[in-house]
Structures are given as structure tokens and as C-alpha cells.
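Researcher: I'm preparing a figure for a lab meeting and need a structural model of a single chain. I don't have an experimental structure, so a prediction will have to do for now. The sequence is pasted below. Please return the structure as C-alpha cells so I can convert it later.
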Amino acid sequence: MNKKNDIIKIAAELIHTNGYNVTSVNDIMQAAQIGKGQFYYYFSSKQELGIDVIKYCFEQWQNRVIKDNLATNASPEDKINKMLVCAIDIHQKRSSKCGCFFGNLAIELSEHNEVFRKEIYRMFATWTEYLTIVIDELKKNTTLPVSMPSDILAQSIVAMLEGGILLMKNKQDITPLINTASMIRKILGIKERDI
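Model: Understood. Here is the structure written out cell by cell.
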């Protein structure tokens, strides 16, 4: 199972950097230093590997964004600030180059592959669901500058962040994402804090 997990991690990096369609099975085998027989021992197809990669990245994302930020016992303001800081930190470490793994795949595959579309949507739906809960918590303590149902506001924030990441990737500069995070704080009436 360790070798299978290694292949999934290597494939995740290649797909994030190059896209799913451009990344070939040969690219993955070469990077993982395996042969065709070993690849097909673990995966029946590139699509099966792709689904495993999405599940692996979803688990990593859940640990970092949900468990470590939105599902903590911190105040709702701190949860949102931590989520925004986390988003900026992730992309600064990648030098603003690759964008969002899920956003990239959503653009590349959603209209062409229903299996991938559903797996990718699960991440956005989970993010919106947890963010809705945090916004509901925030509304209990304060009146927000924007009057909008929590679920619609949460979906809008996810869309803003993904848009900020897309602009960041295109510009190869973290500034659009930082500006998006600042705008989200203004919309929610939250001050930036050191987390």
C-alpha cells in the first residue's frame, strides 16, 4: 500500500502542476520509477488513479482547511481569518504558480467527465457547508455589513477565493488573492488578525 500511496502523491503533484489531460500514465510511471505492470497492479486505468488522487487531495484539504480552521473551537472571526491565512500561505509556498488543485480540475474536466465533476463538487460543497456554519455563528455575535442568507454568502466567498486564486495563477503574483481575502473580511466585518 505504501507504493500505491507514493504513486498517488506523485500523480497528484504532476496533475496539479500540468493538468489531468496533459499528464500521461507514462509521465506518472517515470516520476514514480515504476513499470507498466506495477502501475496496472494498483490501478485499472488512469481515471481510477485520477479518482484516487482527488480523494487523497480532498483528505489533505479537509485536514488543513476544515479540521485545522473551520471546525475548531475558535471564534468565528478567527476561523475565517485562519482559513484566509491558510489559503494565502498554501499559494505563497507554491510561488503563486499552480492555482487550486480542485479549481483547476473543475475548469478542465467538469463538462467532459461526470465522475470527476461529482468528486470535485464534493470538495466545494463541503467547504460551503462548513463556511455556512461559521457564518451562522458569526451572525449570532454581530450584524454583518451584508444582509444575505448564510449559505449564499458562504458560496459567494468560496467563489471569490477561487476567483482570486485563478487571477493569482494567471498573474503569477499572490496580490489578487491577498486583495480577495481583504474584501472577504470587509464583507463579513472582520478585522485581520495575526493567527
